[in-house]
Structures are given as structure tokens and as C-alpha cells.
């Protein structure tokens, strides 16, 4: 077992790491809260990621880890689109990346065609990490705007049903009076 604090070997019966002084409790907590990786989505996105990275490097640019995280997140997002060939992602300068504990949270948008052929802009937020030199997907987070839009659409339907019922009740009351 390796100490997640310093990366040096940690003895199985140890109470403290002899290299950095981290306690066994801290090490066990760090190991048990390791992120869950979506292996299925990660393996499907690898081929597209390799193509994107090769294109980026062929353009004479050097792909840093942050750039690789963005390219991998875009590869994951392509798997979820109805028409991936029409995808146009946000420029790298407009794509936000937050880092925490070797996890990259990528926020961006993609313009692509929906099922009806209309171009729509969809925000995405995907968490990725690099494990043993290979990028992995941790989670695809549903954008707030999508969740809020779905809730508003549900409220609109409920409001329409209530208005229809009230109209029918009013109609029958007026009809019985006349």
C-alpha cells in the first residue's frame, strides 16, 4: 500500500507514515473515498480522445494535462450526442477547468444537432482523472439549466392541466345555471 499523502510505501501494520507522518486513519480515509470511475464510458471515449490529442499536437501545440482533460471530457460528451459529427465545442479559452485532488472538473458547451436537425447549445460538466497515464471518467453532471428547464416544463404541464380542469368546471356550472 502506498501513502496517498507522499506516495511512498506504507507498512501494513503502521500507525504513521515514516516518510511524511500521515496517520493510518488519514491514509485509510483517503483510500476509501477514491473516486468511482466509469470504466465503460472511459474505454469508449479513449479512441476519440487519442484522435483529438493527435490533431492538437499535429497543429504544433503542446497538450498540457489541463488541455488533455478538456479533450477527454469532449470525447466523453461526444458519446452522449444524437449527431456527434455535427458537434462544435466551446473554444479552449471559454472552457473552465477546476482541479481538486487530481480530479479535473470540465465545464463547457457544445453546439450540435438534436433529433429534429436543429442546432442547439448544450452545456456540460464532466469530472475526469488520470490514472496510470490513462484518462478516466468519474461523472457526467447534468447541467443546472437542463434540470431547471425540465422542472419548468413539468410545472407548465401541471398548470395547463389545472387551467383546463377549472375551465371545464366553470363551463358546467354556467351550463347548469342557464
Describe the overall structure.
- The protein is α+β, with helices and mostly antiparallel strands.
- The protein has 4 helices and 5 strands, in the order H-H-H-E-E-E-E-E-H.
- The protein has helices at 24-32, 39-58, 65-79, 144-177; strands at 88-89, 96-100, 103-113, 119-131, 134-141.
- Strands 1, 2, 3, 4 and 5 form a 5-stranded antiparallel sheet that branches.
- The model has no long low-confidence stretch (mean pLDDT 81).
Number of domains: 3
Poorly predicted spans: none
Q: Sketch the topology as an H/E string, one letter per element.
A: HHHEEEEEH
Structural class: alpha+beta
CATH architecture of the largest domain: Roll
The end-to-end span amounts to 86 Å
Question: Could you list some keywords that capture this structure?
Answer:
alpha+beta, 178 residues, 4 helices, 44% helix, Nuclear Transport Factor 2, Chain: A, 3 domains, 5 strands, flat, 22% strand
Question: Secondary structure elements and their pairing?
Answer:
Elements (H helix, E strand, L loop, with lengths): L23 H9 L6 H20 L6 H15 L8 E2 L6 E5 L2 E11 L5 E13 L2 E8 L2 H34 L1
Antiparallel strand pairs: 1-3, 2-3, 3-4, 4-5
Compact overview of the structure:
With 178 residues, the chain is an alpha+beta fold.
Amino acid at each position: 500500500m502506498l501513502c496517498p499523502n507522499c506516495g511512498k510505501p506504507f507498512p501494513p501494520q503502521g500507525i504513521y507514515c515514516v516518510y511524511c507522518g500521515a496517520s493510518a486513519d488519514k491514509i485509510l480515509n483517503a483510500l476509501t473515498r477514491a473516486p468511482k470511475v466509469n470504466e465503460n464510458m472511459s474505454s469508449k471515449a479513449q479512441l476519440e480522445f487519442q484522435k483529438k490529442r493527435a490533431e492538437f499536437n499535429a497543429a504544433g501545440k503542446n497538450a498540457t494535462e489541463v488541455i488533455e482533460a478538456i479533450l477527454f471530457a469532449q470525447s466523453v460528451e461526444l458519446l452522449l450526442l444524437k449527431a456527434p459529427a455535427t458537434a462544435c465545442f466551446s473554444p479552449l479559452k471559454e472552457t473552465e477547468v477546476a482541479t481538486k485532488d487530481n480530479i479535473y472538473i470540465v465545464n463547457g458547451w457544445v453546439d450540435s444537432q438534436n433529433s429534429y436537425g436543429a442546432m442547439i447549445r448544450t452545456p456540460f460538466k464532466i469530472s475526469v482523472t488520470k490514472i496510470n497515464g490513462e484518462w478516466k471518467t468519474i461523472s457526467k453532471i447534468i447541467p443546472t439549466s437542463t434540470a431547471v428547464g425540465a422542472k419548468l416544463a413539468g410545472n407548465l404541464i401541471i398548470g395547463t392541466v389545472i387551467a383546463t380542469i377549472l375551465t371545464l368546471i366553470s363551463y358546467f356550472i354556467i351550463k347548469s345555471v342557464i
